[in-house]
Design goal:
Order of helices and strands: EEEHEEHEHHHHHEHEHEEHHHEE
Mean pLDDT: 88
CATH topology of the largest domain: Rossmann fold
Strand content: 15-25%
CATH superfamily of the largest domain: P-loop containing nucleotide triphosphate hydrolases
Bound molecules: iron/sulfur cluster
CATH class of the largest domain: Alpha Beta
Helix content: 25-40%
Low-confidence stretches: 1-8, 263-276
């Protein structure tokens, strides 16, 4: 269940449960507050993939980082495997992060440039004081699983790897500690198109092999669609739409989702809103529009949209949207 002020329908079963997450930080010249994430809620059940999608600045990456407590959250609740972790101390979070791993957009930058591949992939095991011989065996196993020849790559440094190879190392490194949750933050957007599909397939394969639950963050709806069970669309820190991926993609309920999905105006009213392509830039999170944050770009905006913020509500079974007209 997603949205502001709404109850969780699946919270007790969820591996990851996020409720009313708010992340704000000072960012303006006169101390104005950046409203990076505003009352975002969602659940991810074990084995599911949740895609989080939106333009740059929508708060999707901040949400992923806040879940791991890499960014400070202002308020809200985060549950992992039934345990509330929003106030867990750093020592406890370090232990939990073995179960909650993250893959980043720039794989080379995410790897220590002075360590070899064989050491990088088992860095987490070294921290956990796993004996050296076990680490070496784990390194060979996990490198093979991500499709890298250990003999060829083991002694390489990150700068000697291509983007795709480095992302494979980053994935291997995450898997080596045996996570339950993998948060992938734009994992293919810096890669060549020809390599993107390989990495997406690898994530899918590893999800099955390791019985993973995945949060997949991307700006590209096509990429998210191919991997997601559910999708959460964000705009300027807010949830616009959430639900079963097939339903959201087949019949988007929010004008922003519609605009992201298709730049061609719809002619079939049964399929959702008609509207022109998405135009203009995302407003500053320092001064978001009143009412509906999407209203300055929404072709359907009414006076009410400036005065009243739309609540996230169920518009069809399993599909939620924050729009007065949905
Ligand atoms: Fe557009 Fe109004 Fe709906 Fe916001 S609430 S998406 S401005 S129609």
């Amino acid at each position: 269940m997603a949205g502001s002020g709404t109850a969780h329908l699946r919270g007790e079963k969820a591996l990851l449960s996020v409720e009313d997450l708010v992340v704000e930080y000072p960012g303006g010249p006169s101390g104005a507050v950046v409203q990076a994430v505003s009352k975002v809620s969602f659940d991810v059940l074990p084995g599911e993939t949740l895609g989080i999608v939106g333009e740059s600045g929508c708060g999707k990456s901040t949400t992923g980082r806040a879940v791991l407590r890499l960014d400070r959250l202002t308020s809200g609740r985060i549950g992992f495997a039934g345990e509330p972790i929003e106030e867990a101390d750093e020592r406890h979070m370090r232990a939990l992060r073995r179960q909650m791993q993250m893959i980043f957009q720039d794989p080379v930058a995410s790897l220590n440039p002075r360590r070899t591949v064989k050491d990088l992939v088992v860095e987490g095991l070294a921290v956990a004081k796993v004996p050296a011989d076990e680490r070496a065996a784990a390194s060979a196993t996990v490198l093979a699983q991500v499709g890298l020849d250990g003999e060829r790559f083991a002694d390489m440094l990150p700068r000697q790897l291509s983007g795709g190879q480095a992302q494979r190392v980053a994935i291997a490194r995450a898997l080596a500690v045996g996570p339950r949750l993998l948060i992938c933050d734009e994992p293919v957007s810096a890669l060549d198109v020809s390599v993107q599909a390989q990495i997406l397939n690898l994530i899918e394969d590893m999800k099955a092999t390791y019985d993973l639950t995945v949060v997949f963050i991307a700006h590209d709806l096509g990429v998210v669609r191919s991997v997601s069970d559910n999708v959460l669309v964000m705009y300027l820190g807010k949830v616009c739409e959430y639900g079963d991926a097939v339903r959201v993609y087949d019949r988007p309920a929010h004008p922003y989702t519609r605009a992201l999905l298709d730049s061609v105006p719809l002619t079939d009213p049964d399929k959702g809103f008609a509207g022109p392509a998405l135009e203009g830039d995302v407003p500053s999170p320092l001064a978001p529009p009143s009412g509906c944050r999407f209203r300055t770009r929404c072709p359907l905006a009414k006076d009410r949209c400036a005065e009243e913020e739309p609540e996230v509500r169920e518009v069809r079974p399993g599909q939620f949207a924050a729009c007065h007209l949905a």
